[in-house]
Each structure stands twice: as structure tokens, then as C-alpha cells.
């Protein structure tokens, strides 16, 4: 059983559609990060959320941290082909950081 | 843009060979990590270091070893490669007290 469960595992949509991906856990985290990884590259940090209920926006991306700091969501508005990639969430507890398996997003033109 | 580099990017090697995967960062980060990534699986932490001469095993059993003689360098060595070691290896670094990780581009290792 993974500490961080991400859903869906795969998502294929058309350009212009909206989508939401989820990161859920039964554990409480002091912070949670979202990364995007493109093929052949390492993950790149998108955002860190720290406070329960926090919402952060990065252009068309909206990140939310659950009130209990156990889960998070990423919403993309009007998806573009450039958003294609593997979206990973990672939770920090003390000095430990755990990653989910990711959501592989494909945005078709 | 993070300055962390991994070499080689791709490696195909025969069973039983000794290999070292290189990782260097120029950001002066004390924390460095090695992760193993397989398709559809979470990133597994195999080794980490909080500074020079500090190394620890992660939560994934690994037959590899690491060293941290210099802040900027964190190589990973497999003494005898096996097909089960075939995977993507990601190196990352971070600041002490921080939670974000900055990743290299990865080394894709294939053991035949």
C-alpha cells in the first residue's frame, strides 16, 4: 500500500478541457509538494503547500491542500499539450519525504 | 533552474559489472538523495545524505552503496549489476530545513 495514493493513474483529454487530479493519504503531512516530470527528465517542482486549506494558483494550475493536511488536488483549466507529463505529489513528514506514483496526463491537440 | 547533474544519462551494461552513477550539484545543498523510479510505481528512496560523511539507507532495500566525501558530489555504486537493477535512478538535493527537492535528469540503467 502506497503512503500517497494518486488518482487517476492515467488521464487523456483534449486541449481546452479542465481536469483535476488527486493525492490522498491517511497520514498527516507538514507540507506537500507537486512536481511535473517530462519524459527523459527529472521531476521539476511546481508548488509547495503548507497550511491546511491553502489554495495556490500558478497560471492555469490551482493547487489545494486539504484542511486536515492529508490530501491535495491539482486542477488545470483549459489544458494545453504543453501540460502533458507525469504529475507527482510528495509529502513531507519530519525529515522524510514520500512520493506518490503519479498521474500521467496526456493533452491531445 | 536547478544545477544538479547526473551522468551517464543512459547506460546498458552486462550482468556482474561494477558501475558508478555520478551526481553533482553546484547549489551548496547539504541534503542529497537517490531515488529509484519504475513505471507506475512511487519513487523509492534508496539512499540519502544530510552532509559530508553522512549517508543513510532509504526505505527500499538496495544493494548499492553511496559516498559523500564532498558536499557537491554523491555517487552511487553497484558492485555487481543484475537485471533486477534495471531502472531509472534519480538524484536530488535540497537545503537543510527545506522540503523541496531539486532533481537531476536521471540515469536510465539497463542490465542485460
Class based on secondary structure composition and strand pairing of chain B: mainly beta
Distance between the termini of chain A: 35 Å
Shape of chain B: globular
Terminal-residue CA separation of chain B: 35 Å
Strand content of chain A: over 45%
Order of helices and strands of chain B: EEEEEEEEEEE
Q: Give the integer mean of the pLDDT values of chain B.
A: 92
Number of β-strand runs of chain B: 11
Classify the secondary structure makeup of chain A into a structural class.
Answer: mainly beta
Count of runs of 4 or more consecutive helical residues of chain A:
0
- CA radius of gyration of chain B is 13 Å
- In terms of quaternary structure, what is this? heterodimer
Number of helices of chain B: 0
Largest sheet of chain B: 7 strands, mixed
Q: Percent range for helical residues of chain A?
A: under 10%
Defining traits:
A: 109 residues, mainly beta, 5-stranded antiparallel beta sheet, 56% strand, B: 112 residues, 7-stranded mixed beta sheet, 4-stranded antiparallel beta sheet, 0% helix
Summarize it.
The complex is a heterodimer of chains A (109) and B (112). Chain A is an all-beta fold and 109 residues long.
Structural write-up:
- Helices cover 0% and strands 56% of the residues of chain A.
- Chain A has 109 residues and is mainly beta.
- In chain A, strands 2, 4, 5, 9, 10 and 11 form a six-stranded mixed β-sheet that branches. Chain A has a five-stranded antiparallel β-sheet with strand order 1-3-8-7-6, with no helix packed on it.
- With 112 residues, chain B is an all-beta fold.
- Helix content of chain B is 0%, strand content 49%.
- In chain B, strands 2, 4, 5, 6, 9, 10 and 11 form a seven-stranded mixed β-sheet that branches.
- The termini of chain B are far apart.
- The model of chain B has no long low-confidence stretch (mean pLDDT 92).
- Classes of the chains: A mainly beta (109), B mainly beta (112).
- The interface between A and B is medium-sized, with 25 and 21 residues.
